[in-house]
Predict the structure.
Amino acid sequence: MNSRMIVTHGIEIEDLMALPIPRKSNMQDLKLESYQFVANEENIAIEECDKKLVKEYLKVCSSLSDKIKQLIETKDKKMNNISDDLVNKYLNDMKDNQILLKILNQVFKGCIDENQNIDTNKVITDLQNNPEYDLSLDYINEVSKNEHLIRSLVDIVSECFIPKKEIKVLELNLTNGLMAKEVDTQLASSHIYPIEVNYTIAVKSISTLNDNYKNQTFKLVEWNPQNSVFPNEITSSNLILLKDSHHLWEIDMTSQLQDIFDVISDKGFLISVFRYQLTEPELALNQMNGKKALKNADLEKRIVDFIKAAQSVGFNVIGKKLDSIGSMALLFRKLFSEPKVPKSENIVEIASNPEKWFETLKQKITEHKDKESNDETLWLIANDSSKNGIIGLINCLRLEPGGECLRCVFDYDNLIKGSVKFTEKPYSDILSNDLPINVLKNGKVGTYRHFTLNKEYDKIESNDYFLNVGHNRDLASLQWYDSKGLVTNKDDYDFMNTKTNKIACNIYSSGMNFRDVMFATGRIASGPQMLFTDCCIGFEFAGRRADTGERVCGFDMSRCYATSIDANEDFISKVPDNWSMDEAVSVLSTYSTVWYGLIERAHMQNGESILIHSGAGGVGQAAISICQFYECDIYVTIGTEDKKKFLMNTYNIPENRIFSSRNTQFKYKIKEITKGKGV
């Protein structure tokens, strides 16, 4: 770095300064996802952070319903205060999808209104008949946005239709909480190659739908279950989504499922969504309504009856997901033929050494491709290592001619001893489900799936952190980073390649300089410093040594907007007893710049004249203080009248020594005052 030379075999380049290439800031199409194992059957199919938010929302609704219940029982309208800060926070900023909270809030307002005696039953009934208070649009019923509940099942469907170019989808949904937008996006984006999604939605009334659905490519049909158990316009589908609602409870379940079975193509799928339990505030609302309402036992019985009826018409249960809040999704598959136990020659073990299986696999796929009709499947088995790449292998091979015959079992836990026995569980279930990819992990059958990372995926609680800018290089990208994640070196060296001694310091104050502002707003490049650190802001601090508690201030390469730092011992010094931490940190870069420029380089002497530009800035004020100590004849430039008054009042600079920096007239005025000598 100091020599500015690059030397390699046969080449020497002198006077070269290397700068890093700036990253592209366009992140518009960037999609961040996690890749994780997902069992086909889950009881907690929800992201932990989403579950926490839903629980908080339900807690607020429960608190408000308890307050309403108390008001109804006591009939004391003076109990109108809500002391819970969390409840008030939600009520002051209610979102469009917080329907349950809106209903409870309206009931609460009616209960505390001294001018009227409300009929709670009538108020709730009127609200629920109002489209604005449709509970199917409530936060807890937005199941299609829960990727662990719906996308994990949709991905199974998508995976099974390789290498088809089109998939036909029918959504049977008599509520306003449609799933079409999310499911359509998931099918189109999660597929290995571009696929056309032909999406039809059967609804109660097209006129009541949101305009977003009318203006998109969805085909809309009206369906009245009182006239027919299934829409008459539908002839065939690869996937049917059925969202259960009270509109469907009166029709014959077996007849409906038989029609669905007949419409679904061979090896097609049915995804049904249910409520398996009501939440506490929902039960409280039903109780206030005074009408006969569903109980959790009723919901559970309907799901059991539905599964039995689906199996009776010929569906296989493939997956079962519960979100632990109140919603459930079931995946069924239509399979006509009985599963055939594969012959030993159609089972290939995929080991880490490809020489053992590559030619065999190649020959088997070629044979299958050349046969005009072949209903036999080729099973790939991997159980030698948790790092086996069989999933990537089968995803690629299934795109090749003849690859549709491939299925795989990846024994992540290495439990398979000897040959796979497809007549015993869980392998008999894997065989009957006929899914292309099956992973055995932690005693469960599933596979690996992509899920969109939540907005706070990289947020953790920390008591040791530092400030840095993001890739966009603007003030909006400023955020705190966990210092515990930094890699510490056993030995540290400075720019001169000299070994340094690091001292742990707890930071109390950090200094903000002009360069930090220019860099954080993207107005200047990072320079060669970026070769050594990914943080280029924060150069001065004041605090205490962690070992002795001594008050110190100093410099570092970066990361001084932080709670702590390992500082170079040569770059820190003791803070004078009569200085505060803030005063100490304000001296560092400003007075160091003045000392180096005026004393070290310019060798300033007593009584000299000097022109200080930007005199109201940090360096400018430091220069004024030093020059006044040296009894210099001081001239300054400033940008505004306020700064001019500040310098006159604070440093007693005469008005005729202060000039505007907005033009060049100051040089003529200085020449005039100094009688042509200048400074």
Remarks:
- Residues 344-452 form one domain.
- The longest helix spans residues 48-74.
- The chain has a mean pLDDT of 88.
- The CA atoms of residues 82 and 455 lie 31 Å apart.
